[in-house]
Amino acid sequence: MSADATEPVGPPNARVFRRFGAMLYDALLILAIMMLITASFLPLTGGEALTAETLGALELAYRVLLLSVIVGFFGWFWTRRGQTLGMAAWRLKLQRHDGAAISWSDSFKRLAGACVAWLPLGLGYFWIWIDREHLAWHDRWTGTRVVVMPKKK
Questions:
Q1: DSSP labels for 71-133?
Q2: Whose CA is closest to 77, among 146, 153, 8, 152?
């Protein structure tokens, strides 16, 4: 039986619900980190909501810090191990189509593409059900794929 030239060699591509499971785990971790950052800013406002009125110019720094946490979390894990903590729990790994690790540039593009894939009510993710290789929009746009790793024996 010959392999189809369009099909990548190696582990199978991850499906929607397994990816969503990993995303939920990662979202909880990121949320906890963001809550700690927010708590560290609250003494500056006397416990009031963090707005431009209560923080002044620091409000922009606060928002940039929160965005940096998201970008840094995914970028660090994806470029080092190919897995976030949530992906490791669900035995998922991010890689280029040739099996190589992704770069920081790939990470930025993938994260931006993933945000775009969520905009039309998550259609970019549910596209996996339609795509013949089970790839989401941002997988195609960035030349990456999320694979299911075999169970360790």
A1: HHHHHHHHHHTS--HHHHHTTEEEEETTSPPPPHHHHHHHHHHHHHHHTTTTHHHHGGGTSTT
A2: 146
The whole-number pLDDT of residue 9 equals 65
**Which pLDDT does position 52 carry in this prediction?**
80
Which stretches in the chain have pLDDT values below 70?
A: 1-9
Contact yes or no for 133/13 (Cβ under 8 A) = yes
- In the prediction, which pLDDT does 12 show? 93
Per-residue model confidence (pLDDT) at position 54: 77
Q: What tokens appear for 114 in the block?
A: 């993933």
* Phi-psi map region of 24: left, alpha, beta (phi>0 left; psi -120 to 50 alpha): alpha
| Exposed/middle/buried for residue 81 (C-beta within 10 Å: 0-12, 13-18, 19+) | middle
User: What is the per-residue pLDDT for 93?
Assistant: 98
The H-or-E segment that residue 144 falls in is: strand 144-148
Residue 110: closest CA among 134, 65, 146:
146
Sign of CA dihedral 88, 94, 99, 101: negative
